[in-house]
Design goal:
Distance between the termini: 58 Å
Shape: globular
Order of helices and strands: HHHHHHHHHHHHHH
Number of strands: 0
Number of domains: 2
Strand content: under 5%
Largest sheet: none
Structural class: mainly alpha
Radius of gyration: 22 Å
CATH superfamily of the largest domain: MFS general substrate transporter like domains
CATH topology of the largest domain: Growth Hormone, Chain: A
Amino acid sequence: MDTSYYPAAFAIALIIPIWVWLLTRKLPESPRWLVSKGKLEEAKLTLSRVNPATALNVLAEIKNAVSGTSGKISDLWQKNNLLPFLIILAAVSLNQLTGINVFVQNSLQVLKESGISSDIVGVFGNISISLVNFAAMTATLFLVEKIGRKKILIIGTSGLLLTLISLFSAHLIFPPGETIGYITLAGIILVVGFFAFGPGALILVISTELLPNNVRGVAISVAFTIGALVGTVFVSWFGALVAIIGYAKLFMFMAMFVFCYLLISMYIPETKGKSLEKINWKNR
């Protein structure tokens, strides 16, 4: 196996983190965090950079909403915090169990084992998956304030569910070969597209908007840590699961989790056009 190109590949990969590091140095602190620490002038300056006309009004809303105390893990079990935290935890975990990391990280393996023998087709298929991922997330950026978070989430999860059920059916009907290989490629592209359009693009937005200010940081940390563990276990067991139950049953297994995600998304309230201070779980 030729590994001479590895240094160049790693060097190219360094470009993105370097740019992210440079750009994050220009990011201002969160005005809500500044208010919670008593740094009102800095918060006012940050808000003025975004929209000078509304800076004072927004600052007043933040001051009324921020209690000035940081939330603890024990606060997550309080009555007003528990339900939104459990919904976010379930959504983050189910995000991983949809199999998105498997499709993105192991797409070449899945395509070859499904019947695509050409390395060139596999590579171009992998590139197509990345392009669809980018295009779907970009579409969400333009549509999220027009049609709302909830509708986008339901569209994304519904598309995921139908695609996974279709992949399950196809792998039951067709024997291994080029036909099922290309069907699998089309299915993976759709899975990645629907995921990027809905759950993938919105999970952090929803997590931020549904959680109260005082516990938002700790709740997101706990939920995403557990979600990362769930994703790691699922990806590490992927090969063993395929060997034991095959791709057809595995796709159905993933579809069951997506169905649960779809049910959860129906209970997530619409927050389009509302500031974080105006979003109150008790009033939903």
